[in-house]
Write a structure and sequence with these properties.
Layout lengths: L1 E6 L4 E8 L3 E9 L1 H5 L6 H23 L8 E7 L3 H18 L3 E5 H7 L11 E6 L4 E6 L6 E5 L5 H12 L6 H10 L21 H16 L6 H26 L4 E5 L6 H13 L4 E2 L3 H4 L4 H11 L29
The chain binds adenosine-5'-triphosphate, magnesium ion and fe (iii) ion.
The site of fe (iii) ion has 4 residues, from helix 4.
């Protein structure tokens, strides 16, 4: 089964062809980071225009590189949401046109299901599983009873982890996107400025990052007002330790509470060195199998969309040609039908 997948939910235009939800024949990603850097963040209107400029070329190139004929494709998958509506629409229109012209089924796919199923590109997922989703727009603990069934156990009540990283980075004077810079500074620093851990109510799987972010901004402002040098490394390390400690503790607790056979890490912040090493160490100590996709499948890409769409395709759950972008699309609502689960 060959699925051609399209992803345009934010600032990456990507087209991939994935065989059997597992084997990536081609995965092309045109990143707009350089364009948005000048603005210090993603400008939605600019993102949409760039998607328009890239999408046709990427579609043609993906098919050419795969060595397949368009008719060899079994379905066209596209990110339906969540994301920037104008950006989503570009991919959706292209995918619809392609599906209609080739008379192939269309599969509207959830972006976060894609991030989670990026792990399937590496190995089969064992259920029940817990996924820790950490990206630019999402911070969630998701329970998966079986393939394609999603239940959100907890999520951030304010900023997403990636968003908090980018805001802290900006305060420390790092260029956009700042997450990787804060990560590097944190790992290079010998000392950590003490910062609070935000646990919320006992037993809660939710997160809150805005207070921690404000604490960092206050520290930076205080230093500047006093004319002192900002301890960038110490702050980065303190921030990272605080974030990582809470993420790891809640994810591990979820694994135990639900008897999960596997923990899946995913999303752009899965690239974070501090998080990867802390989670790897904890999982090793507690004999919890941990899956982390390689970096290229952690950030936005269409291969992960092809992997997620496959679980719908094999159940015959395809979309009609009337789908339109769903900026606030629900992950639970995208679950496969329970009765159809094998
Ligand atoms: P969503 O998937 O929620 O719609 P998104 O697709 O924009 O959001 P991703 O592309 O998955 O998000 O991740 C991008 C985020 O990951 C950015 O906020 C970036 O700063 C952050 N990030 C990337 N690498 C690292 C790192 N090493 N440490 C911390 N954050 C990082
Ligand atoms: Mg992105
Ligand atoms: Fe994403």
């Amino acid at each position: 089964v060959h699925i051609l997948a399209v992803e345009t939910s934010c600032d990456e235009t990507s087209v991939a062809i994935v065989k059997n939800g597992r084997e990536v024949l081609v995965n092309l990603v045109a990143s707009q980071i350089e364009t948005h850097k000048a603005f210090g963040g993603v400008v939605p209107e600019v993102a949409s225009r760039q998607h328009v400029e890239c999408i046709t070329l990427l579609l043609e190139q993906a098919i050419a590189e795969s060595g397949l004929q368009p008719d060899d494709l079994d379905a066209i998958a596209v990110t339906e949401g969540p994301g920037l509506v104008g950006a989503l629409l570009v991919g959706i229109m292209a995918a619809k046109a392609f599906a209609f012209a080739l008379d192939k089924p269309l599969i509207g796919t959830h972006h976060i299901a894609g991030h989670i199923y990026a792990n399937r590109l590496i190995e089969d997922v064992q259920y029940p599983a817990i996924a820790l989703v950490v990206s630019g727009g999402h911070t969630e603990i998701v329970r998966m009873e079986s393939e394609g069934r999603f239940e959100v156990m907890g999520q951030t009540r304010d900023d997403a982890v990636g968003e908090a990283y980018d805001k802290v980075a900006r305060a420390l004077g790092f260029p956009y996107p700042g997450g990787p810079h804060v990560d590097k500074a944190a790992q290079a620093s010998e000392s950590a400025v003490p910062l609070p851990r935000v646990w919320l109510e006992e037993g809660s799987y939710d997160f809150s990052l805005s207070g921690l972010k404000s604490a960092v901004l206050n520290l930076v402002n205080q230093s500047r007002m006093k004319g002192e040098e900002v301890d960038k490394g110490g702050i980065a390390r303190g921030f990272q330790e605080s974030v990582v400690e809470v993420l790891v503790a809640k994810a591990i607790r979820a694994v135990h509470e639900f008897g999960a056979k596997q923990l899946l890490l995913c999303g752009g912040v899965a690239a974070n060195g501090g998080l990867r090493s802390a989670l790897t160490a904890r999982c090793a100590a507690e004999s919890i199998p941990l899956l982390i996709p390689p970096m290229k499948y952690c950030t936005d890409n269409a291969a992960m969309i092809g992997a997620a769409a496959y679980i719908k395709w094999i159940r015959g759950e395809v979309s009609d040609l009337y789908i339109k972008g769903e900026p606030g699309m629900s992950l639970e609502g995208w679950s496969v039908e329970a009765a159809a689960a094998p």
